[in-house]
Structure formats: structure tokens, C-alpha cells
Specification:
- The chain is built from ten helices and 14 strands.
- By secondary structure, it is an alpha/beta fold.
- The protein folds into two domains: about 140 residues, D-Maltodextrin-Binding Protein, domain 2 (3-Layer(aba) Sandwich); about 90 residues, Periplasmic binding protein-like II (D-Maltodextrin-Binding Protein, domain 2, 3-Layer(aba) Sandwich).
- The strands form five sheets. Strands 10-9-11-8-12 form a five-stranded mixed β-sheet.
- Helix 3 crosses helix 9 and helix 3 runs antiparallel to helix 10.
Length: about 270
Amino acid sequence: MDFRHRSRRNSISLALAACAFLILYAAMPPGIRAAQAETLTVATDTAYLPFEFRENGKYVGFDMDLLDLITHEMGVSYTLLPMDFSNIFANLTAGKVDMAIAGITITQDRERSMDFSDPYFRSDISLVVANDNTAIDRFADLAGKRVGVKRGTDAADYVNRLQPPATVTYFQNMDAGFPYLEVAAGRLDALVHDTANVRYYSQNKGQGLVKVADTVATPNHFYAIAMPRNSALTQRVNAALRKVIETGSYASIYHKWFGVAPDPAQLMLR
């Protein structure tokens, strides 16, 4: 038997098999590739207190703690890719990231182009004005007023549907609370944003500068983890999320960031 010939033939077979695997792997949908990977690429917002923000050189917040819990339960690691909120969806639909967590509201429009996990947070929309503002008490007072919103958010959609309309100013992010400072300085009449962020800022850095004037309970306003369409990760993420809720880990980080105990039953109202 010619062992050298056999060895060469085996090497060629292995090389062909490896090439075939690489071609097949490249053709897989991003979610299926991600499910087989050791490290996931996760998009997040650059600054959305108290869900994700940079502190002492690292990203922290409720979403970051939840991401740690879920990926640990899944047995995978991740690489974080911070970006402006409005860029997250293009990266998801193009398959450039495996998932995104950034206070992302589930909407019918978004569900047409991406997958969502089960809800992990319920949030309403609040109206913020300067602390000494007595002219704006409710959303109905915003007609013709200068109102700031974060681009690409459910709050922005809500303000744009108001009739009579307001004059809208868009912000890419909420870094360092700049839009709130614009309200406090009188360069904007109001700011409309998700309640969790609004209350966190008004009770911390913005205390004495801005106040919450009104809150609207928008229907089905839930946050979820987003993934590319038909991702193989969706079921695994949901299983991990259920686990961290059942074990009490979710309640622990919820209390850490919001100072109250969560009501998991609220997540089932969708």
C-alpha cells in the first residue's frame, strides 16, 4: 500500500471538506452563525441612562447587567459595539451584529424586518419641562412649542402624531444629558422621552433643573432584545431571559437601577 499517496489523498479530502464548510457557513443566515459562535457581537446605544452609559471607561446600566446575565446563562461571551441608536437597525437588518440591546421598543414596523425576544421592560413616555415652567402641564400644551426628541424612538413617533403639531428638534443621543440642559436653559420648551430615562435624569443630574410634567401610558410599549430576522438565537435568548427572571437575578438588577421591585406580570401584557 502506498501510504504517501493515501496521506496525500486524505489531505486533499480534508481540504475540500474544509472549503465546503466555509462556503456553507458563509451562506448561513447571521442568526444561525451566531448560535454556533462562542462570541456574539452585540450593538447598544452610546448613552441611554440608566440602561446603558459609559462610566469609568466601561459601559454600565440595566441593559448591560441584563446582557451579562443572559449571555452567561446561554454560555456565550460577547463583544459590545456601541453606536447611535438610529444606526442599530441598519446593522441588524444587514446582519452585521448578532443582537442589540438598547431600550428597543417592539413595534409592528420593526417586527417586519427583525426578530424580538420576549419583553424584559415596560416603559411609558414622559414630558419634561424646565423646573420653573408653568405654561406646559400636559402633552396637549405642546402645540407650536419647541420639543426635543431622540431620533428613531417611539417617543419621537408619538410627538410627530400630535395634533396640533409641535416644532420638533431631533437629537442623535442623550450623551451627558445635553437635551435636558437645552430645556433647562429655555432653548427648548420641552423634551419627550421614555419615562425610565426621564425620571432617572430628573432625580439625579437634573434635579432642580427639570421636572416631569406629564406621562402617557402608551399601549404595548415594551423593550426587548432585537436580532436579525429568523435568528436561531431567539429561542435561546428567551429561554435565558425566563431563567434569570425565575431565579431572581432579574429582580436584583431591576432594584439596583430603579429602586423598586419589578412586576414580571407586567411583561406578559403584550
